[in-house]
TrEMBL record:
Residues 1-19 have a biased composition (Basic and acidic residues). Keywords: Cytoplasm, Nucleus. PANTHER family: GEO09665P1-RELATED, ZINC FINGER PROTEIN 706. One of its GO terms (cellular component) is cytoplasm. This is C2H2-type domain-containing protein. It comes from the Eukaryota. It comes from Lithospermum erythrorhizon (Purple gromwell). InterPro entries: MBS1/2-like, ZNF706/At2g23090_sf, Znf_C2H2_type. It is found in: Cytoplasm; Nucleus.
Length: 68
């Protein structure tokens, strides 16, 4: 059985260990972005966003097919 300072240190360590890891929103966003425009290297979340991106930023180009 621990007493005094040892008990307080043990409680502090356990509290830190049990605390959830905090991640930034940028890290979560990076995990969600899976599609990259081959022309301008912009990261997009899905094929629909890629089609919209090509329509507005690269109107003369055809969007690549994502079935692969």
């Amino acid at each position: 059985m621990t007493r005094g300072k040892q008990k307080i240190e043990s409680q502090r360590k356990n509290a830190e260990k049990n605390q959830k890891q905090k991640g930034s929103q940028l890290e979560a966003r990076a995990l969600g972005l899976k599609v990259v425009c081959p022309i301008c290297k912009v990261q997009l979340a899905n094929e629909k966003q890629m089609n919209d991106h090509y329509g507005s930023k690269h109107p003369k180009e055809m969007p690549p097919s994502m079935s692969g």
